[in-house]
Specification:
The complex is a heterodimer.
Chain A lengths: L2 E3 L8 E7 L3 H9 L7 E6 L5 E5 L2 E5 L1 H4 L2 E4 L1
Antiparallel strand pairs in A: 1-6, 2-3, 2-6, 3-4, 4-5
Chain B lengths: L1 E7 L5 H9 L3 E5 L6 E9 L2 E7 L11 H12 L4 E7 L3 H13 L4 E6 L1 H6 L3 E2 L1 H8 L3 E3 L8 H13 L13 H14 L8 H9 L3 H6 L4 H8 L4 H24 E2 L8 H9 L5 H45 L4 H19 L2 H17 L1 H15 L4 H10 L3 H6 L7 H10 L9 H11 L4 H25 L10 E3 L8 H35 L12 H9 L11 H12 L2 H10 L7 H10 L2 H13 L4 H11 L2 H28 L3
Parallel strand pairs in B: 1-4, 1-5, 5-6, 6-8
Antiparallel strand pairs in B: 2-3, 3-4, 7-9
Helix pairs in contact in B: 3-11, 5-11, 7-8, 13-14, 13-15, 14-22, 15-22, 16-17, 17-19, 19-21, 20-26, 20-27, 22-28, 23-24, 24-25, 27-29, 28-29
The chains are: A alpha+beta, B alpha/beta.
Chain lengths: ~70, ~675
């Protein structure tokens, strides 16, 4: 099992969120959108601009700054 | 009257449900003190009237944004009899997060499990009974867009109200340690006359909720107890969130079956093209250009033209009528030019606004707008701006009033303020007639080029000012881009039309009253002192023009007439051409005005004049909107002064450099 920052995931890669660093506000906001430890996500787009991931039933666009603070295990 | 509140995630179909429940008995206003929209409506069932309040769509009921605070304050203080929680069946887990918070507040909740058709399409199997029993909350499946299940929902809701039932559910555990803290805080809070239930305050306090902590800051014992937590406080915050999701997860595992791997949906297919690295921006440009063109052709040319014609005919009729009944000249003038002129200035604009809102509404309803913000974010971010800012800029091209109002979608204060401040550089529709007159007079063969150059200049200035503001006035981190991309859906014509009507009405009320008032005032200034020749230099208006004229001398148009019309343009941009006509020897619009202008301006001064018009102080309606949206006079005044300074510099530069170059 590998661990890497979300920002390094390639399209169609799947993984679970291991850790989210960064200030409390962002973590809270992300968790409200369903992005928490242990949750599975699938990378959809990661070339230019914000990343797009799919999580449970929804699609989220995340800025690269945030994506670099989320560690994925896969 | 009993009240029902609607709560739910954005894109969960809450508004569609609200429309289905209230029909045309709706009313949009503002929550006092904030710029959050308040939507209320009425439902009649079995002869009884119920008040329905549509709360802002939120993912959570914390204290992070005005939306959230408004929503939860209403639930906790406003005490609705029932809260209908709209839950998106294709995204149950995340949607239920809000539900857990409602449970913590002790509200009477009914869940409307919406979009059941889409869930079916995705092969999601939901055991409604199990879900309902485990949550302890009644669940009614609905497809609000097709009005399915709405009847049953109303039945259940009114049943709860009539039986005065206080729904009784087990609140879940947050783990031994936290549960203990909650109990201890509750007992410390007992007996105090706080506005909120103690259980909720205890949980929120442990969660570090700023508003709640502010509310209890005088309760010494409680704040001391909280202080003893020290480092554990942050852990508790996250733990509480986790426990909510744990509770949800357990329930959902037992009652919902989702297919493991989702197929590529139509939404995914469309997105492949629409957010593509290379195609995204051109597609967005194309869509916006089309909307723009349609708006101007339908709104301005077609309908605007007709409306203008009607207003003119009305003016003529009334004129003839009044003269025939022997009304004094001043009254005739006041009514036809003042009042009808004033009303006309606003009404002529309505078709444009309607069309703009119609098309934007359709784009929003389909879910495309989030993609647009996504696609523009890359470029905007390089300029220190947010992706959504570009959307407000596009709207501003129609009219700056809705342009500024559309900045409400920007959650971060800094992003929002900047978006508001740069919006007026988006050349609004009302300025076009001014450009057209000068183009006809001096650049008849290069009209398209001049127009394009003007719009382009406006955008450049906006982006530059945005970058400057980003680095100076609003230093600090720019917001992070976090946005949901909802599945594409067919727009609901009903919703779009209703939304359009609401917004047009708001425009009329706000802009309309101001434009009307100011045009009337201008008229008064033009006829005083009594006996003076209307619109002459001796009138009050003319005198004002004479006083401020020297300011414009370096820009090449330091005449009292030019000054007067620019001054009038602060009232309403539509007034500029009319006033120009009046002050240049009473010439009406059309060929006479063009000739008159050709006699007084030169191609160079015409250019510097329209650069001034492009960039200077926006109309009074826009200023009023800024004041309202920012809740501050300081920014409204800033909005009067700074564009003027920029415009002055621009116009002077054009003139002086042009003169040096020998034009």
């Amino acid at each position: 099992m590998e661990e890497k920052a979300m920002i390094l995931l390639k399209p169609n890669e799947i993984g679970r969120i291991k850790e989210i660093t960064g200030c409390g506000n962002i973590r809270k906001r992300l968790s409200e959108l369903g992005l928490r430890r242990g949750v599975q996500i699938k990378m959809l787009k990661n070339d230019y601009g914000p990343l797009i991931i799919s999580i449970a039933g929804s699609k989220l666009a995340l800025g690269r700054g945030i994506a670099s603070k989320i560690t994925i295990q896969n | 009257m009993n009240t029902i509140a609607l709560v739910g995630n954005p894109n969960s179909g809450k508004t569609t449900l609200f429309n289905a429940l209230t029909g045309s008995n709706q009313h949009v206003g503002n929550w006092p003190g904030v710029t959050v929209e308040k939507k209320e409506g009425q439902l009649k069932y079995n002869g009884v009237l119920y008040n329905i309040v549509d709360l802002p769509g939120t993912y959570s009921l914390g204290a992070y944004s005005e939306d959230e605070v408004v929503a939860r304050d209403y639930i906790v203080k406003g005490n609705p009899d029932v809260v209908i929680n709209v839950v998106d069946a294709t995204n149950i887990e995340r949607n239920l997060y809000l539900t857990t918070q409602l449970m913590e507040m002790g509200s009477n909740v009914v869940v409307a499990l919406n979009m059941m058709d889409e869930a079916k399409g995705k092969n999601i199997e939901i055991n409604l009974e199990k879900l309902s029993n485990n949550l302890g909350i009644p669940i009614i499946p609905t497809v609000a867009a097709k009005r399915k299940g709405v009847g049953k929902l109303i039945e259940k809701t009114t049943e709860i109200i009539n039986n005065n039932k206080n729904l009784d559910y087990q609140l879940f555990s947050y783990g031994e340690e936290i549960d203990k803290e909650i109990q201890e805080l509750k007992s410390l809070l007992k007996g105090s006359d706080l506005d909120y239930p103690t259980q909720w305050i205890a949980i929120k306090a442990l969660e570090g909720d700023k508003e709640v902590l502010e509310h209890i800051k005088n309760k010494k014992e409680v704040t001391e107890k909280l202080a003893t937590l020290g480092d554990k406080a942050t852990d508790y915050e996250l733990e509480i969130v986790d426990k909510r999701y744990e509770f949800i997860g357990n329930i959902v595992n037992k009652s919902v079956k989702s297919p493991v791997d989702s197929k590529e949906t139509l939404t995914d297919k469309i997105d492949k093209i629409v957010v593509n690295k290379y195609l995204g921006i051109p597609i967005f440009g194309l869509i916006m250009y089309t909307v723009f063109q349609l708006t101007f052709v339908i709104g301005s040319d077609l309908f605007g033209g007709y409306v203008e014609g009607w207003m003119e005919s009305l003016g003529d009729c009334v004129n003839v009528f009044l003269i025939n009944t022997g009304a004094p000249n001043w009254l005739v003038s006041f009514i036809t030019e003042g009042i009808i002129g004033g009303v006309g200035a606003v009404v002529v604009f309505v078709p444009l606004i309607m069309t703009l809102y119609f098309f934007l509404g359709i784009l929003e309803d389909t879910g495309y707008m989030s993609r647009a913000a996504y696609v523009m974010d890359g470029i905007m971010r390089a300029l220190g701006l947010h992706g959504k800012t570009f959307i407000s800029m596009i709207v501003g091209f129609g009219c700056n009033v809705p342009g500024i109002m559309s900045t409400r979608t920007l959650e971060n204060k800094k992003d929002r303020m900047i978006a508001i401040l740069i919006n007026p550089f988006m050349s609004c529709g009302a300025r076009i007639p001014i450009y057209l007159v000068f183009i006809a007079a001096f650049f008849p063969n290069n009209g398209g080029l001049v127009l394009f150059a003007l719009y382009f200049l406006g955008i450049i200035v906006a982006l530059i000012m945005g970058k400057i503001f980003s680095k100076t006035l609003f230093k600090g981190e720019s917001s992070n881009f976090i946005m949901e991309l909802p599945p594409y859906r067919l727009p609901s014509m009903r919703s779009v039309l209703r939304d359009m009507w609401d917004k047009v009405w708001e425009f009329l009320k706000r802009a309309g009253t101001i434009i009307f008032a100011v045009v009337t005032i201008l008229w008064i200034l033009s006829v005083l002192p009594l006996g003076v020749e209307q619109y002459s230099q001796e009138s009050l208006l003319g005198k004002i023009g004479t006083i401020i004229a020297p300011i414009f001398a370096p820009a090449g148009f330091g005449t009292w007439q030019a000054s007067v019309s620019l001054f009038a343009g602060i009232a309403a941009k539509e007034a500029v051409v009319a006033i120009l006509g009046m002050v240049y020897a009473g010439a009406a619009e059309g060929a006479e005005l063009i000739t008159a202008i050709q006699g007084v301006f030169t191609p160079l001064t015409a250019l510097s004049f329209i650069v001034m018009v492009l960039l200077y102080t926006p109309c009074a309606a826009t200023i009023a909107t800024v004041k309202k949206e920012t809740n501050s006079y300081k920014w409204a005044i800033f909005m009067v002064v700074y564009p003027f300074v920029i415009a002055w510099i621009g116009a002077v530069l054009v003139y002086q450099v042009g003169t040096i170059l020998g034009f």
